[in-house]
Design the sequence.
């Protein structure tokens, strides 16, 4: 999160200029709901799980993610495209609900899952390889549904999506 320097704040005070506070200037307010799209995960046994995910595309949206959200529906999530594909690392700073963090490789298959990531934890959760996107889902949903490494993720903007 960017902070204004003292000189800038002094200039605002002297000129009487005010600026609107954005949601992300307040570190305890979740970002507004982002654009949504369908996403599906097909397991090895052919079962298809359907989700509606928010798409976090800008650096600010990705930095904020699901911070300060109080709940996440079982059929919802947030997708973080990685352009260009690269290794990724997530943490749970200011995230108050447990999440399953699903790392999606360049072939659209899941390469790693951090299950039930601990709220507020600063422990890095690495992808373990190159990803084209990371998907955050409700904590425990991957185990409940049997979603695992190797399952195929299909969404607009992903390989074969």
Sequence:
């Amino acid at each position: 999160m960017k902070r204004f320097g003292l000189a800038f704040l002094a200039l605002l005070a002297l000129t009487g200029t005010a600026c609107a506070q954005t949601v992300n200037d307040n570190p305890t307010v979740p970002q507004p709901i982002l654009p949504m799209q369908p996403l599906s995960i097909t397991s090895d046994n052919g079962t298809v799980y359907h989700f509606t995910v928010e798409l976090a595309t800008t650096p600010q949206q990705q930095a904020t993610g699901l911070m300060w959200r109080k709940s996440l529906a079982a059929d919802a999530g947030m997708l973080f495209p990685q352009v260009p594909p690269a290794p990724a690392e997530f943490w749970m700073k200011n995230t108050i609900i447990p999440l399953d963090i699903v790392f999606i490789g360049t072939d659209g298959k899941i390469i790693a899952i951090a299950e039930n990531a601990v709220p507020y934890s600063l422990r890095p959760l690495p992808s373990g390889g190159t990803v084209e996107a990371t998907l955050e889902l409700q904590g425990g949903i991957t185990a409940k549904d049997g979603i695992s490494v190797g399952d195929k993720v299909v969404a607009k903007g992903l390989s074969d999506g």
